Amino acid sequence: MTALFDVEAPAAPAAAGPRPLVIALDAATIVTGVAGVGWTDYVHAPAKGLHERFQQQLDGCASFYRHADYVVIEGPAYSKNNNGADALSALRWFLRQDLWKRGIPYAVINPQARNEYATGKKRPVPGTVPPKKRYEVGKAMIRDAVHQRYGLLTEGKHRYDQSDAYMILALGLHSLGHVLAEVPEAWAQNALRGVEWHNLPAVAR
Questions:
Q1: How far, CA to CA in Å, does 107 sit from each of 70, 99, 141, 193?
Q2: Which CATH class is domain 18-204?
Q3: What is the pLDDT of residues 172-182, one digit of tens each?
Q4: Average pLDDT over the chain, rounded to whole?
């Protein structure tokens, strides 16, 4: 197996030394949420053509992670069926390939792990919520958790993209032994199983 496909899931003891620079990406073809410790942002790709949007996303995301020690990317929600899934999968792989070329270790974090880290549940939206409202309610729950736990309130049109990115940032850092805020042990341990590291240097394995 090549380094691109080697999967590592490091344990999360308390880390010694300074906190590494980690950047998180909630990737999407039009708007990607971006986060680092204490801040969030986004990359907007307004081009009409898909190839052009891919390039705008790659260039924009790279401007955030080019000096990063590690990057975390939200992975696919396999239960979600939509017409843009193929393009989104392609974008994620373009990002992963670029990170591999740059020698930046990255983790793919599945959305259920993000949910567990935020709420303690893989599917936190109550069954009583109408189907048409479930998506937004779920996103709002992550945003609220980011605000309550980390004191960071994402606002504006792309607030949910940014709060999703911040939650996977926190989970990625936790997996490296740097915990941003207290999380119930059971929530953390379950969520950490959904963090898959790739391209890690031998010293980190």
A1: 8, 10, 23, 12
A2: alpha beta
A3: 999 999 999 99
A4: 89
> Do 172 and 189 touch, CB atoms closer than 8 A?
no
For residue 136, give both structure tokens.
């937004």
Tell me which residue has tokens 């073809």: 29
Residue 77's pLDDT is: 76
pLDDT digits (tens, 9 = 90+) for 6-29: 444 444 555 657 999 999 999 999
Query: Residue 154: how many CB atoms within 10 A of its CB?
Result: 22
Q: How many angstroms separate the CA atoms of 31 and 84, rounded?
A: 13
User: Whole-model pTM above 0.85?
Assistant: yes
Separation of alpha carbons 120 and 190, rounded Å = 8
Does residue 83 have a pLDDT over 80?
A: no
Q: Report the first-to-last Cα separation within the chain, whole angstroms.
A: 16
The CB density around residue 150, as the number of other CB atoms within 10 Å, is 17
Structure tokens at 111: 């959305």
CB neighbourhood size of 69 (10 A): 14
